[in-house]
Specification:
This protein has 112 residues and is mostly beta strands. 0% of the residues lie in helices and 58% in strands. The chain has one domain: Jelly Rolls (Sandwich), CATH 2.60.120. Strands 1, 2, 3, 4, 5, 6, 7 and 8 form an 8-stranded antiparallel beta sheet that branches.
């Protein structure tokens, strides 16, 4: 799907990451990637870091997020910025969907 101008949700492949998280890679190029993550209540996005800038948009649900040494509860419409290398993660408080935007794209999420 790299460099595809049109990416229809029905054509994307859901990847069950286990423990209540399903990831779908949506549109992406070398510079940018959009990923949808669906969480069930109680699912955890383990604390981690990576060398990508990441913006997360909360499409639905409620999440307890940690970014660096800060923690906040976020919900529909909230946006979070995670700069290169910052430790971050979340716990899903109410089932929902997060949209992640990465720069550059996450090679580890796709097989080119």
């Amino acid at each position: 799907m790299k460099n595809e101008r049109w990416v229809f949700h029905s054509d994307t492949k859901p990847e069950d990451l286990g423990n209540g998280v399903i990831r779908r890679v949506l549109a992406y190029s070398d510079d940018l990637m959009v990923v949808e993550n669906e969480f069930t209540e109680g699912a955890v996005g383990a604390l981690h870091s990576h060398p990508h800038t990441q913006i997360t948009y909360v499409k639905s649900g409620r999440f307890a997020f940690t970014i660096g040494d800060e923690q906040h509860i976020v919900s529909e419409g909230d946006t979070l910025l995670k700069t290169d290398g910052v430790i971050h993660g979340c716990t899903c408080l109410e089932a929902g969907i997060l949209l992640d935007i990465f720069n550059p794209y996450r090679k580890d999420f796709v097989e080119d």
